[in-house]
Amino acid sequence: MPYYRPPGPAPDPALVRDLTAQQNELRQRVRAEPLPHPPALIGGCDSSFPTPDTILSVFVVLKFPSLELVEKVYSYGPVPLPYVPGFLSFREAPNVVQAFAKLTHVPDIIMVDGHGIAHPRRVGIAAHLGVLLDRPTFGVAKHKLTGTYQEPGPEKGSLTPLTDPKTGELLGEVLRSKDRVLPLFVSPGHRCDQATATRLTLACLRGYKLPEPTRLADYWAEKFKVEVR
After folding, report:
1. What CATH number is associated with residue 161?
2. pTM exceeds 0.90, yes or no
3. CA distances from 71 to 83, 170, 173, 180 (A)
């Protein structure tokens, strides 16, 4: 589901400074580490904007590795912040946290539709949520936000690194999730490392471009929209 990005005046400089300071503080709390054990449950989350002023956030929980759906919940409410480029997580995170609070099955790790550290300030929505929830998270995004990469091979499973062009820092991996489709951008969020993020993304592919946790979150978002209209 593409994000709703409304046109409008330039963002308030004071707001940008405040959000930047908050992101820099969040960045200091992000930790890269492998999972201590294979997950039994994996979560997926996605947000969409049914109207310019409302947000619908969905969480699904799947058994791993079977990917059997265990639970699905949503939260619907007003958008808390105007759209500011580079700070989309502040529009989404509060409502995603409210959806997470409705779960009765707590996932061992969460796959987020968006970026982890592959963000100009290294705090995309997956990293942001991981810190807020203190849960392992990683991001699987459909579009690049920052970094450079070589196009991966055309076959499913082909990988290339996503790096910072100035420092060479590894920001993520670019993954061909299905033969001859546009690649995905996989990056660790919080309490996760790149190897874990890539391994779990590959393990969650079931013939679609998107891995099952985020694919099903997007699917149920469309279903839940009927309930909120």
Report:
1. 3.30.2170.10
2. yes
3. 30, 34, 29, 32
